[in-house]
Amino acid sequence: MTMHNRDSAEAQFMSLFSDLKLWSDDQPEDLPKQATSDSSIRDLCTRLYKVADVIRDLWGENPLPHFSQANPGFIKSWRDFEERYAVPLFKVALQNLASHDDKVTVPMTTWDMQWSSAELYGTHAYMALVRSVMSVELLGDEYAAKLNELFPAENCHVSATDAWSELVDKVGLDIQKAVRRRVLLPSTLISKKISSKEDTGDIVGLLQSLEEAQRAFVFGATSAAFGMLRSVLEALLRDHYGAKGETLSKMLDTTHLRAGPVKDNIYRLKKTANIFLHNDREGRSGDLRFTYERLKKMSEKELEQEFVSLFLVLRSLIERAT
User: What is the pTM of this model?
Assistant: First the structure.
């Protein structure tokens, strides 16, 4: 993904989204009905929906779903689009399917739908990889000769099945689950202000910790993933919210995040991470939501959803940082 392509798509999105909000009086729930009688509204909805798909496709080219140098205005508009406009525009797209063959992407609206979709994708990806490994091993002489021209035998001392065995059987990498968790990771937009500080080395911590948290989650290191979320939170508060203090509690007391639902969510993130970091089996917090026993009873699906839920809390703080 080039910055030019991304900037161009984001500029189109901002223009179309601004027009649609103006035309609809910022009442997205009325758009499906308006689109049936007003071709201008229908065309605008369709164009915006397609540009949003282009942006998602561009983001999908990244190894991990966080994107630096984001414009704060775009961040705010994109989240507004996701929360209020994506579903109505999907309904408009469905109406268009009655007479067109346009490809549309179903927005995931519930935890279970997201997880099930990611699980199915992971299963298909795993099956495709198995077929590829088997095909390489069973190629006929003609294809093997062509491969040997590209990859001379003297440079290939490990067979495909041996390489597969090293990763899957010996290292224990569960490819199917890794793909599923990668799909589940929400995208995070890092503002230009944060990116500039981190990229120049003036401040080091947030982006590196965020990437490690994402990779730990993808590869199934659950305890490390939860623990790294706390590291991201501490770096965010210290370097981008001006927090002071040696402990997370003291840092929170020196920011404007001291009260309300934001503080409650931060408390939940902190306590959950502490259980994994410190093996808090006795639940010293006194809150039954944050006990070792509760987390141990969670299914794999529930733990993944818990991580994504806490990650979204953190994402909100990252994208609001100025």
Answer: 0.79
Structure tokens at 144: 């093997």
pLDDT tens digits, one per residue of 166-222: 888 999 999 999 999 999 999 999 998 888 887 776 666 788 899 999 999 999 998
* Cα–Cα nearest to 311, from 247, 236, 202: 236
**Sign of the torsion formed by the C-alpha atoms of 13, 18, 20 and 26:** positive
Give yes or no for a contact between 80 and 26, defined as CB atoms under 8 angstroms apart: no
